[in-house]
């Protein structure tokens, strides 16, 4: 251990790391990084590591093995992609810890990340476009202009992240199509970190997205008949509300988990479960249904739809505020056969 190091407890160093991220990272990113480090704090507690100054490469190896076996959260052995993301976060933390004289500045280099095979670091779940349309049709019939309906409409039409949908204020909605840049209704996603709604890509994520006339009408009906007339903690008027103000991020995940269960629409269970005893029927456990999907899965389904319809890649990138590489790796769910057939449409006959 170097004489230049200053004693600090693991939990205190993690809190400093979390605080230091405020200037450059969104709240959701900071929250994710903080969550991934909780298992490291638990490991330090179990190993009686009270001061980071003595942390060694051997400790990091033991942590990697400990975490790979699923210890730290009571689960089964974790997936390789999950292990990689947690170790990558720990590596970033160790670089920070080196900067504040908590560990050897080069210690982070001793934490190697697992090598992923092609596709192992990519989620294989999506909400297929045809399923999305079926759910929207059901909502239009059973719960028109409800918050659930409008949330899914906006996620699907704009392809935006749930954080961007959450950030919308009433003034961000041009439902009459009067904005001089557009010939129809649109919504404006704005990066506002100082009042609690940062966008994933910061200022570069600020953009207008067109919506259909039909969606604009449903939003108008939602505002008139279903929206709670409340402001958020910063005095802003959020478009989507709860009785207490602007919904938290988890509200959108729970909404998608709930409405994407087949039994929610009165369909039979495709997983041969007894609906009367299935725990996923409880809305608080809807995520345990194998058919339930997240807002991220709606976004990937939208990309797949655009690609099937041969929408130019530049247009998709701008509308969804994501790079070509990210769209291809994490959102496009066309099969290899679909992609091959679409390419053949642009190739001359041999």
TrEMBL record:
Q: What's a GO biological-process term for it?
A: DNA recombination
Keyword DNA-binding on this protein?
yes
User: Segment Disordered: which positions?
Assistant: 326-350
- Recorded source organism is Halorubrum coriense DSM 10284
Source organism, top-level taxon: Archaea
Q: Which ranges form a coiled coil?
A: none
Q: Which residues form the Core-binding (CB) domain?
A: 8-98
User: Gene3D superfamilies of this UniProt entry?
Assistant: 1.10.150.130, Intergrase catalytic core (1.10.443.10)
Full protein name: Integrase protein
Which one Pfam family would you cite for this protein?
Phage_int_SAM_1
| Protein's UniProt keywords contain DNA-binding | yes
Name the SUPFAM superfamilies for this protein. DNA breaking-rejoining enzymes
The alphabetized UniProt keywords are: DNA integration, DNA recombination, DNA-binding
Domain (Tyr recombinase) ranges: 122-344
Which molecular-function annotations from GO does this UniProt entry contain?
DNA binding
